[in-house]
């Protein structure tokens, strides 16, 4: 695997030696190492880029960023549109997992004109160092304590887990954590641009990747060619406030799922109204607290698993059938299957979680007094019980994080920044619609396409209307009219009982957006 050497000492990524600015030297790309024991197709090339740990000391300690690329099929002439850099969100998700998917999903004429480049942000995956704080087999061993505390004793157990995780990360990574921020990842992106020899780059970011893109556009507006933000974060609500808003949006999406199950009572027999299916869901959760399904799926595992159904309605038939089989027939296999596929965690997930916390806890201030958290969550749990406490404990290490949150980058438009494209689902749970509105307000020259559905990540996910707008913009910069909308994809229909392996198909896009194995993915 080749090493790209980006210059140090200047804002645009060019090297400074003896006061003379030079073009960064770039080594050739090479074959990729195996991924999960499987060979990587030859069309994908890999490289590693050295970047400063601390951009205030550009000649100091260097870390490595792992990249991969699917090259354009046209030569570098007028038909070549340069580099399309991609990020799947998180923070903590591997961009290298997204590269082949984007290359395979874009229209052939668009894909042929871009070098599509993915990267593992600092601390993630194959980048070095790769952040890991605990043994995932021990930390995630099911069944875990119920995320909804029933009293002070339960709360002390959960609080102890959060404090211990933060302490372990601090003990292992005190030298790295102060530099694990969105702003530094944006600076890394500009080093990637410089190392690739590009004057400008195009960018496609999903979820948290929209915030990363907004920070990059703020810091390096002259370096942006085309910019696509899919499922936007509100840049003015990072990060504690953003999580409070998520509790409400996840509740709304979960109730849409419960209403869908009720409409298909003839298939699942879990209730004819949303009130009845809600009762059935929480009765199941209570029952799992006393007797975890298969000895592994307790209340917290159920929360983790069914949160995935808020990201995409394509899995609703699978989840409803597993739930129905458990309630109606006492069959635990379906619940265990959906947990194994959508709720369990491994070493890759723990790496993503550690980076998620490292970035979010450092990007912005968090309450350091637990009384504030308890008061907010107690109030919110009454209106949004599905996600409030699980989301709180997912983020609770930030109350103890060894690096206090700093001042976020003030995301704002520059007259030097070209118009760009925002893609959003109206009922998105992980990145609520109001975030896209806030992003558009900060960048008034941007244009939004609003899909009327509720799935997270709307481009390259099967909606042809959305994908036409994406392709037109990437092809020649064409923007949609203001207030452009796309109809939602058709609602799923109940499926007949299927074998377990057939039920476990995952929507392809979400498989590479850092959602699997995570309670909350952005």
Q: What value does the Rg take, in angstroms?
A: 23 Å
Number of domains: 2
Mean pLDDT: 92
Helix proportion of residues, in percent?
25-40%
Strand content: 5-15%
Describe the protein's architecture and organization.
The protein is α/β, with parallel strands linked by helices. It has 2 domains: 27-129 and 179-236 and 412-486, Alpha/Beta hydrolase fold, catalytic domain (Rossmann fold, 3-Layer(aba) Sandwich); 132-175 and 239-407 and 492-521, no CATH class. 40% of the residues lie in helices and 13% in strands. It has 18 helices and 13 strands. The protein has helices at 99-105, 108-111, 136-139, 152-173, 182-195, 208-219, 240-263, 265-268, 274-290, 299-307, 316-329, 333-342, 347-363, 370-383, 388-395, 433-442, 464-476, 500-503; strands at residues 2-5, 15-17, 20-22, 30-31, 44-52, 62-70, 83-87, 115-120, 201-206, 224-230, 421-425, 447-451, 484-486. The strands form 2 sheets. Strands 1, 4, 5, 6, 7, 8, 9, 10, 11, 12 and 13 form an 11-stranded mixed β-sheet that branches. A two-stranded antiparallel sheet has the order 2-3. It starts with a strand and ends in a 19-residue tail after the last helix. The relative contact order is 0.14. Residues 7-27, 498-505 and 516-522 have low confidence and may be disordered.
């Amino acid at each position: 695997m080749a090493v790209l050497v980006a210059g140090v000492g200047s804002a645009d990524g060019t090297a400074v030696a003896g006061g003379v600015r030079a073009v960064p030297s770039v080594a050739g790309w090479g074959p990729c190492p195996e991924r999960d024991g499987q060979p990587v197709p030859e069309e994908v090339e890999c490289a590693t880029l050295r970047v400063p740990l601390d951009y205030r000391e550009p000649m100091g300690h260097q870390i490595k960023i792992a990249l991969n690329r699917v090259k354009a099929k046209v030569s570098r002439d007028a038909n070549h549109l340069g580099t399309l850099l991609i990020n799947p969100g998180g923070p903590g998700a591997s961009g290298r997992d997204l590269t082949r998917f984007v290359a395979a999903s874009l229209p052939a004429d668009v894909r042929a004109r871009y070098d599509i480049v993915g990267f593992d942000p600092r601390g993630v995956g194959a980048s070095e160092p790769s952040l890991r704080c605990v043994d995932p087999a021990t930390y995630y061993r099911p069944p875990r304590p119920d995320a909804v505390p029933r009293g002070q004793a339960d709360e002390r157990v959960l609080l102890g887990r959060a404090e211990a995780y933060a302490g372990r990360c601090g003990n292992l990574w005190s030298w790295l954590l102060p530099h694990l921020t969105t702003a530094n990842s944006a600076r890394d992106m500009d080093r990637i641009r410089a190392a690739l020899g590009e004057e400008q780059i195009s960018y496609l970011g999903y979820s948290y990747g929209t915030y990363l893109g907004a920070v990059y556009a703020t810091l390096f507006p002259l370096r942006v060619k085309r910019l696509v933000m899919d499922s936007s974060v509100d840049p003015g609500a990072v990060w504690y406030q953003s999580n409070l808003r998520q509790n409400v949006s996840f509740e709304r999406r979960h109730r849409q799922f419960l209403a869908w199950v009720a409409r298909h009572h003839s298939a699942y027999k879990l209730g004819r109204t949303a009130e009845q299916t809600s009762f059935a869901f929480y009765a199941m959760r209570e029952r799992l607290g006393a007797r975890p399904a298969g000895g592994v799926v307790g209340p917290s595992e159920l929360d983790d698993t069914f949160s995935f159904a808020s990201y995409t309605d394509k899995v609703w038939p699978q989840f409803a059938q597993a739930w129905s089989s458990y309630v109606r027939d006492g069959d635990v296999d379906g619940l265990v299957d959906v947990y194994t596929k959508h709720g369990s965690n491994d070493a890759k997930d723990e790496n993503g979680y550690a980076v998620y916390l490292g970035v979010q806890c450092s990007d912005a201030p968090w309450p350091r007094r637990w009384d504030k958290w308890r008061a907010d969550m107690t109030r919110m749990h009454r209106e949004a019980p599905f996600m409030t406490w699980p989301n709180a404990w997912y983020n609770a290490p930030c109350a103890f994080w060894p690096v206090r949150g700093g001042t976020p980058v003030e995301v704002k438009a520059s007259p030097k920044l070209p118009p760009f494209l925002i893609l959003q689902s109206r009922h998105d749970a992980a990145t609520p619609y109001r975030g896209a509105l806030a992003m558009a307000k900060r960048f008034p020259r941007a244009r939004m396409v609003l899909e009327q559905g509720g799935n997270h990540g709307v481009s390259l996910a099967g909606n042809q209307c959305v994908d036409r707008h994406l392709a037109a913009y990437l092809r020649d910069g064409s923007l949609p009219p203001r207030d452009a909308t796309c109809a939602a994809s058709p609602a799923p229909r109940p499926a007949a009982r299927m074998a377990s392996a057939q039920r476990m198909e995952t929507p392809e896009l979400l498989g590479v957006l850092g959602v699997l194995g995570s309670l909350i993915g952005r």
